[in-house]
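Hey, resending since the last one bounced:
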Amino acid sequence: MKTQMKTLEETRYEAPPKGFKLEPDGIYRAVKKAEGEATWVWLCSEIRVLALPRDRSGNGWGRHVELVDPDGKVHRWSFPARLLAGQGRELLTGLLDRGLAIASGPAAKDALIDLLSAWKPASRAITTDRLGWSDESCTDFVLGDGRVIGQNDVVHQNEETASNASEMKSAGTLQDWRRHVAEPCIGNPLMMVGVSLAFAGPLLEPLGIEGGGLHLRGASSRGKSTIQRVAVSVWGSPRFLHSWRATDNGLEGVATACNSTLLGLDELGEVSGRDAGKSAYMLANGTGKSRARRSGHVRAALRWWVHVLSSGEITLADKIAEAGGRAAAGQAVRLLDVEAGTRPHGAFDTLHGFGSGAEFADTLREATAMHYGTAGPAFVEMLIRDREPRLAEVRATMAVFRKTAVKRFELNNEGQTARALKRFALIAAAGELATASGLTGWPTGAAEAAALEVFGMWLEGRGGSGPDEARDAVERVRAFLAAHGDSRFDLIEESGCFHPVNNRAGWRDKDTFFISGDAWKEIHRGADPKRAAIYLFETGYLKVQEKGRYTWRLSTSVKGRPRTYAVRAEIMGAGGG
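The structure tokens again:
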């Protein structure tokens, strides 16, 4: 299949309808004089109707126009035909905003609407309100500047999304980007993973993989933002990097604009803990909120498939905790936390001859300001041209990566670890595919090796491959016992006697804390107490008397012999302290 990047030069123009003509200085209309003769009167500056767009179901017809502003810049705009109804104020505003000059007076405005209504070229186009893949068929890809990669005549019809994607544009050549931006990534695993994550954006929807991403954590001025700028340069300018400060409503629009590409979010610390948790779920799930239109009808929720590359000085869990919340395992696995400030030079391993990490970062910042937005479209062109073989190649690389990681890190491949491993496998496969396509200048296998190393960093940072819920349950019990182990637990002596305390949470002897049912619920408020008991049993910290029952009945020395949760004192470390 031959792909095409549709350009102005490839457009075939059709003449204006009867009663209008196009001259070098614009459109003229025929005005009849009283004696019956017609004279040509200037109507507006240069404009053409290129096609009649409609959606894939045959509804939502409109006009796709091209006009030239006073500076000679060409603008293309697709608008719904309903804007031609009535006085056409919204239509006229849109044309004027794009630089169209119109003759004065109501007659001229009416004539312009007549022109656009009657101008019906044979060309047809398909409308989409999405950037990135235009629909679930993943055959056409819409860029932020309006260019379309693919076979079908697709036009974008969503001004809000287009505005949010205004920095998804290109500068310089692909060769210069590869030389000055991509090749310095060699030897720097975090940077290679960031760039590979950007290339993985267009693979999400064709492979049916949900969104998600990475959070680079570390002290300021260590290179995190530079890595983000380098990754974002795959698709656009440095200003395509966004801020966590946006509200969740604002992030919906930004995520939609970044569909199928990369959403860079800087400075997690600048958003509230409550909004951070909600946003992490929303971005990964790919669905915004349904809202009412002015008419009262419900507007369909915004949808997207996007990879996120976030940065901040603290983890997502720490940010959520600032608001008194507790990060769920699902949030942590959607935005994988990676320590990015402990490499040999901050976030960098190799400086390629520069004297310091700061000097290296400054050079990359200059490079990304001049060379950007060429590699992503080239990757998509390659993907559309050889879709099935390339997707098969990606799946094969992912499978090999998973096998390698399971063996190297001795993984049990449980829930959260398996999901994180899948993300890193996709990152590795995307980087290798971009390399095989001549886009990066990296050695074969380098992207896979970088992804494997950063996966190991993530694994080490979370404390192993067990479930997040299990570690959280252990930490909750440990924190509770550290705070109340002496003050709220009756000490049972070897003689069978015990020393009562106020606000009892349970009993203890030299080896075990016997936690009451009410205290157990208190410890695991906001989580599942029963699941917590299972996790502690599986980790060896919870003692049981009967198979399948996770509570422990106390001896006759305690009145009523209550059932408790018997937690080994070793959960606190050597000596039970």
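Residues 12-125 form one domain.

Sorry for the duplicate.
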